[in-house]
Amino acid sequence: MRRLIRQRPDVNGITEGVIWKQLLLFFFPIVLGTFFQQLYNTADAIIVGKFVGKEALAAVGGSTGTLVSLLVGFFVGVASGASVVIAQLYGARRADDVSRAVHTTITLALLSGVLLTGVGLGFSEWVLQLMGTPEEVMAYAVPYLKIYFFGMVPQLIYNIGSGILRAVGDSRRPMLFLICAAMTNIVLDIICVLGLDMGVKGAAFATVASQCVSAVLVLTSLCKAQPVYRLSFRKLRFHGDMLARIVQIGLPAGLQSVMYSLSNIIIQSSVNGFGTDVMAAWTAYGKIDGLFWMTISAFGVAITTFAGQNFGAHLYDRMRRSIRVCLGMAAASTVLMSVLILVFGRPMLGMFTDDAHVLEVGMSIVRLIVPTWIAYLCIEVLSGAMRGAGDAMMPTLMTLAGVCLMRVFWVSVVVPAYHQLPVLLMSYPITWTITSLMFIIYYRRGTWLKRCIAAQNKRGA
C-alpha cells in the first residue's frame, strides 16, 4: 500500500479505497490518540485522587472539567469548520485554497488561545461559585485553573493543527503527538505531585507542559508538510473568504458545544448539590465514560473527513455508503464497550478512590447510564456527516432543542420535584433518544444534501 502511494501520489484512499478498510485505517489512529489524551487526563485524576484526596479529585475532574469544556469547546467547535473546509478543498484538489485555509485557521487558533486565557483567568472562579461548588473543593479547583488556563494557546494549536492533518487524511501523526504528550504528562505528574508534593498545582503544571509538547510537534509537522498544506509563519493572516466559510460552518458547531456544556454545567451544579462523595463518584465515572466518548468522537471525526472529501470530489453515493458503514461500526463498538464496563466497572472505579461509598455511588451511575450509550450514536455520526457536507446549522438546532433545552427543562422542573440522583441522570438517555430520532428523520428526508450540493455548484467547487 505504501509503495502504491509513492508511485501514485494522486491516489486518495478516502475517496477511492474500500470504505470499511479506509475508515478503520483512519479511525484507529484517532481513537488511539484520543486514548492517550484520555490517559493523561486520567493520570491526573488517579494520582490526585489517590494521593491528595477526594476533594482534589472532585476539583480536577468535576466542576473544572465542565467549565473548561464550555470555554475550549466553543473555539474548537468554530475551528472544526476549518477541518470541513480544508477536507472539501483537498478532495476537490484546490491547492491554493487549501493553503489559504490552513494559514487562516492557525491565525484563528493563536488569537483565540490568547482570548481564552484572559477569559479563563478572569471569570473561572466566579463561574465555579455560580455552579455551587463546595468550599472544600473550591480550595483545590481555583489554583488548578489559574495554572491550567495558561495552556490555552498550545491546546488550541494542537487541536486545530491536528484537525488540519486529519482533514487531508493524516490521522497517524496526531496520534503520535498525543502519545508523546501523554508520556510527558504522566512523568511530570509523578514528579510534581508525588515527588515535589505540589498537589493539584503540580497536576495542572504537568498538563500545561504536555500541551506545549503536542503544540510544538504539530507545528513542526505542518512546517515540514507537503506544499499544499505546508505552514509558513510569514503567511499567517486572515483571508476573508476563507474565514467566512470557516465561521459559517464552525460557528454553529461552536455554539452547539457551548449549549452542550451549559447543560452539563447545570447538571454538574445539581450533582454538586448531592455532596462531595457524589461529585467524586461522578468524576471517577466520567473518566470511564471517556472511553466511550473518545471512541464515538473518533467515528465522528472520521466520518466528517470522509464526508467532506467525498463531497468535495462530488462522490455523493460513496459519501452515503460511508455513513452507513460508520454507523454499523460505531454500534458494534458501543455494544462491546458497554458489556465490558458493566462487567469491570467496579475495579475501574477503584483506580481513582478507595472510599467505599464513592465506589457504590459510582457503580449506580455505571449501571444506569452505560446501557443507554447506544442511543447517542446517530447524533454523533449523522451530525459529523452533515457538517462534512457543509450543513452545519440544522445539526446544531436539533442538538440544541433535543439535548440542551430538554436537559435544562428536566433539571429545572423534574429534578426539583424528585430530588434523587437517578432522576437527574435519566436526563442523558431521554435526551439522547429523542435527539437521535430527530437526526434519523432529518437525514432520511435528504433535503439537507440537496441544499449542500446546490451551494457547492453555486461556488463552482
Task: Set down the secondary structure blueprint.
Blueprint: H1 2-7, H2 13-16, H3 19-51, H4 54-91, H5 95-130, H6 135-148, H7 152-167, H8 172-195, H9 199-223, H10 240-272, H11 276-312, H12 316-349, H13 356-369, H14 377-388, H15 393-417, H16 421-425, H17 427-445, H18 447-459
Helix pairs in contact: 3-4, 3-8, 3-9, 3-11, 4-5, 4-6, 4-7, 4-10, 4-11, 5-6, 5-7, 5-10, 6-9, 7-9, 8-9, 10-15, 11-12, 11-13, 11-14, 12-13, 12-14, 14-17, 15-17
Estimate the strand proportion: under 5%
Low-pLDDT parts are 1-9
Tell me the overall shape. globular
Largest sheet: none
Give me the count of strands.
0
List the domain count as a whole number. 1
Rounded mean pLDDT is: 83
Helix content: over 70%
Structural class determined from secondary elements: mainly alpha
Q: What is the count of DSSP helices, taking H or I runs of 4+ residues?
A: 18
SSE pattern, N- to C-terminal: HHHHHHHHHHHHHHHHHH
Distance between the termini: 30 Å
CA radius of gyration is 21 Å
Task: Describe the overall structure.
This protein has 461 residues and is mostly helical. The protein has one domain (16-459). The protein contains 18 helices and no strands. α4 (54-91) runs antiparallel to α5 (95-130). The radius of gyration is 21 Å and the shape is globular. It starts with a helix and ends with a helix. Residues 1-9 have low confidence and may be disordered.
